[in-house]
Amino acid sequence: MKILIIFMAATLFWVNALAQEPNHIIRIARLVIDSALLTQYNAALKEEIETAVRVEPGVLTLYALAEKENRTHVTIFEIYASTDAYRSHIQTAHFRKYKSITKDMVKSLILSEVIAIGLESKLKQ
After folding, report:
1. What residues are paired with 63 via a beta bridge?
2. Which parts of the chain are beta strand (E)?
3. Does the predicted TM-score (pTM) go above 0.85?
4. pLDDT value for 3
5. 65 with 3: CB under 8 angstroms?
6. How many CB atoms lie within 10 A of CB 118?
């Protein structure tokens, strides 16, 4: 969780307005990845994120990061325009491909839907 807070403070300079829209869905996924498959997992995740953000209008933010001291611990911060946008996302071919490819790479997964309390940063555009 500490790495997520640092990440948000350092890079989410525009999320405050986005995340506080009442219809937006904000989720955090915490994963532990099999260390022997970490390189393959990271490649699959990067491909899925790049595709989702590029082709899905309802996918507003997807950030993935790994703990510096334990690279197998991955956190994904997600913002969707609505519940429908999230439901649509998990039905896409690229998401289903990611899930299929990574199903044996993920040792644990915890999904949390969260709400924005305060997201501020000195980093502004």
Report:
1. 77
2. 25-33, 59-66, 73-80, 106-114
3. no
4. 53
5. yes
6. 7
Structural domain of residue 64, as residue ranges? Answer: 2-114
User: What is the domain-level CATH number for residue 42?
Assistant: 3.30.70.100
Residue 115 has pLDDT above 70, yes or no: yes
Number of structural domains the chain divides into: 1
72-106 confidence digits (pLDDT tens): 999 999 999 999 999 999 999 999 999 999 999 99
- Pairing assessment for the beta strands 73-80 and 59-66 based on DSSP bridges: antiparallel
**Lookup: tokens for 78:** 């997600």
Identify the sign of the CA torsion 43, 44, 47, 53: negative
Average pLDDT value for residue range 27-53: 98
Domain assignment present for 14: yes
Output the six-digit token pair for 111. Answer: 């999904």
- Name the β-bridge partners of 109: 31
86 neighbors 57 (Cβ within 8 angstroms)? no
